[in-house]
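User: Can you write out an input/output pair for a complex, sequences first and structure second?

Assistant: Here is one pair. Inputs:
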Amino acid sequence: MTGANSVLDAAAIRREFPILTSEINGKPVVYLDSANTSQKPNVVIDAMTTFMRESYAPINRSAYTLAASATEKYEGARAAVAKFINANSTNEIVFTKNATEALNLVAYSWGRANLQRGDVVVLTHMEHHANIVPWQMLQQERGIELRWVPLTSDFQLDLSSLPTLLAGAKVFSFTAMSNVLGTINPVEKLCAAAHAAGALAIVDACQSVPHSPTDVRALGADFAMFSSHKMCGPSGVGVLWGREALLEAMPPFLGGGNMISEVRLDGFKCAELPAKFEAGTPPITEVVGLGAAIEFLNGVGMANIRQHEIAMSSYALEMLTSRFGDDITIHGPRNPELRGATFSFAFRGIHPHDLSQVLDQSNVCVRAGHHCAKPLMKIIGANATARASFYLYNTTQDADALADALDSASDIF
Amino acid sequence: MPGIEDLYREIILDHYRTPRNRGELPPPAVCTEGNNPLCGDDIRIYLDVADGVVRDVKFSGQGCSISQSSTSMMTVAVKGKTIEEVRAFVRRFKHMMTLSEDGEPVDQSIKLGDIEALQGVVKFPVRIKCATLGWNTLLEGLDEATK
């Protein structure tokens, strides 16, 4: 049973994930921390171990058969990523360490080449630190101006002053979905507003790409980034997508092997895209794992995953509210269509750290803290929250287990 | 898995529900702030030091039951002690929390009293930072006050 309106057999999907079928102290694991990082299915684990056992070799460097085959698998994963988000070409797909590095790459490389003192970068109040601090670093170095899109009382971006904020701006960088509130932003509309003002549109797609279909061309963005580890793939690899003309015009980020076409004592020439932005030996096995994760997600269907999470959101919102009433405060939109299945909440005045500790007694895994969004936490008036986040492998039983464990927390405090 | 009762001992919950010495002290009392970057907790310690003695101490800020109760118990213990006594007391506490600094002598004869209830936190390593937040902030305050 995975929720009346779900289109997925989440219970069957769950059996593909070794950790989700394991037990700690004789009790099943209730994993509700996928907004943080997701669990890994057998197909990903197997793809990585098989690759290391049978095919591992350097990429892009050597003529021997093994190396050619490893290169083919690595580049095959790049092609899978490009198709997954409907990029124009594999030249637009740059593998990074994670989405944080991708954001830093854009701020550092594009930002330093294009932003001068007084230039304006617009961010929002619901950004992750990864989409704040790289710009603040540029602010310190270059004296750029940062402007902020505020929130409405129902946890949406307040777009009433957007044209004013964007006037004269060079960049509008925003999250597709808040990792704290669950709010899904109108990305197409925001990209169009950025372009109307002559600004670049950068989309932090970390929380959206794993959970719903993504078409970067339809979104109209200029850059987007996401992390493998949040979408059933391994940690250690992230993706920067950028429009080819922009990537082409940007100076390189990290220098070293693979990113050059020529090095002499008096200088160097960059390699073609995407190698230009992939200095040094990349996470080869991890990229192969990401390719397997994409195949797995495609098999389930991204639209199905989105439908499942809408059903999970409906169930969780209704159940938690009817069971706990005013004792639970959910910091985020109430409409399941406007949000992802990520819920930050306060419960009976119990500190989130204590709450997560007690939930752990029932193997209920939730995040407690500021979720790398301290400015947002301050705005919603919480020092910290507990956060339960659902993914394709979570069922209504997981939501019920959370509620039962919350009850036991009340017994202690 | 260690039992949750090892963590949430009654004396800890008592200090959490009814914190002692909560509040602020006006200047010239020294105020230092500590943050736990993991969970967003913050704590401020106000120290009134005169003639080498902690005359008064108060704390404010937000945090979990462990950080709040640990700080509350600490304020009760250090009030009225000389700076040297407080430093030795903090060393003894940190030693109990398995955080001894190399080469610093720990006086095992110092009695921690109620604070011994925090020993259970050691079984939950991620929470050790919560238990020591107020104490580290106190040490910064002592440095400030004796500059």
